[in-house]
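Human: We require from you a standard protein entry with sequence in single-letter code and fold as tokens, and nothing else.

Assistant:
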Amino acid sequence: MTSLVERRMFARMEQSFSGWCSIKDARELNEFSGVNFSATGLGVTTVEQVPEGRALDVWLVNANTKIPIYTTGQVVWQREFESGRWHVGLEFYKPELARLLPLINQRY
């Protein structure tokens, strides 16, 4: 039996958020729903297939704060999980967990 080795340096945070992205320097925006994030990347679902390896401008929004967080990254993998819907893995160019803290739902 083969064991799976976790290669992540940072734990994933399961969190619902939304956002949009565009291929770097393009005008067309693609909306997505966020599934999880870590200091180094995001897991999202989308109805648009984005070419792997492409540079992206990314804006993330928490439903509570509604203030977009801008970052850049690239698609490192994607899988179609049902017809016309994709799970996509994005890797940040400049990992910084602190700037993503507004994505975490805080209840007061």
About this structure: The mean pLDDT is 77. Strands lie at 13-23, 30-37, 41-46, 55-61, 69-82, 85-92. The chain has no helices and six strands. The longest strand covers residues 69-82.
